[in-house]
Description:
Elements lengths: L1 E3 H17 L8 H16 L3 E3 L4 E11 L10 E8 L5 E12 L12 H10 L4 E10 L8 H4 L17 E7 H7 L11 E2 H8 L10 H7 L11 E9 L16 E3 L2
Parallel strand pairs: 1-2, 4-9, 5-6
Antiparallel strand pairs: 2-3, 3-9, 3-10, 4-5, 6-7, 7-8
Amino acid sequence: MSFDIVEFTGRLEHVIRGSINGVSGHEWDEDFITINLLRDIRNELSGSRFTGRDSRGSIDWQIYKLKGTFENNYGDVALVVNINYKDGTSINGAAFLEAKKRDWRKTTFGAMKIPQAKRILKNAPRSQYLLYDYEEITNFLNGSLHLEEISPFYHSRGLQVPFAPVTRAVCVPLNLAVATASKDTILYRHSVPLSQMLSNRYFQGLDLEFDDQAKQIATGFLTKFGLPKYVVKVDISANEVDGKDQDLRVNQQHYLQLD
């Protein structure tokens, strides 16, 4: 099924919000939220194509979970992104996300630790916090057409309240969070919805780490610096272009692919 980038982002937002909205209080745990969210996004993306500025792209999304226990200096989730263009060129890189849930009935993210964030930044300077909220987030950055991108999936919060774009998961740069020393929902003013981060940033080859060390860690072939809990391998390819990059295969000695 094909979508333009605007509708594609809207569908992603719809899935993300629904996935997190379905998590109850006793299930409010980063690992539980993350694995369910990754699966829900995969199921939505399966067989999808989107039209960007360059060409129509098909998306293959595979999820892997760490088998053993390693020190984590690169965040909870690594996205390994491989993009093949119609003209035969390609780019590949990795993105690292550190997931944190909002504390129940508080405005804080109690699991945020500045020393941990600094360790991640030392290895992956473009890393992001992935923040989950059990309530609607509305005060994220609205400067890059997010309003129009999720317009088919606006959420009404009552007859007296106008339709408004909302989300349940946002990304905040780790370096910005460290610079502000904020560990609460004030960070939302600097955030971008995960749906937009995926479709308009990572899936366009932006905000990725391109060095060999980052890519080897993201795929599980370099372990001395620690490994992320989850790896998501994303292959995006133009029509009639092979999107499988064997140089970025995930090391299944350390990772188990999830159904």
